[in-house]
Amino acid sequence: GLHHNTKVFTMNNYLGIGCAAGVALNFHRQRESRPELFTSRIINKAWYAAFGARDMVEQSCKDFPNKVELYVDGVLTKLNNLEGIVVLNINSWSAGCTMWNELSSPNNNW
Asked: Which of 97, 110, 76, 73 minimizes the C-alpha distance to 16?
């Protein structure tokens, strides 16, 4: 028979570590274990906000700068008072939050 060489490509539009990733993971685990509690978009957003609020109180990532090193172009970058890092290849994140103002950027190349 014929054999087709299939290549699988995965594309992620963002990568997060730290607080935001922890909130997303907690939301995912709860939704997988109790899908009946996640019945609409507004309910899902409320759950997400609740997990985010809980993390703000618990401060699960308060030591993030002491656990992670970030090198940008080979230079160690200080992570003062950060609780996470999000790497994007799109201009919005988290249900449409704009991460930077592309109109005011002097280096707007797109």
From this structure: 97
Question: 76 CB contacts (<8 Å, ≥6 apart)?
Answer: 69, 70
Encoding tokens for residue 92?
């919005």
Q: Indicate yes or no: pTM above 0.70.
A: no
- The residue behind tokens 């019945």 is 39
Candidates 78, 48, 82; CA nearest to 64 is: 82
46-67 residue pLDDT tens: 999 999 999 989 988 889 999 9
Say if residues 17 and 68 touch (Cβ distance below 8 Å).
yes
Residue with tokens 């978009």: 41
CB burial of 22-34 (b: ≥16 within 10 Å; e: otherwise) equals bbeebbeebeeee
**Residue 104, CA distances (Å) to 36, 87, 99, 109 in order:** 44, 20, 12, 12
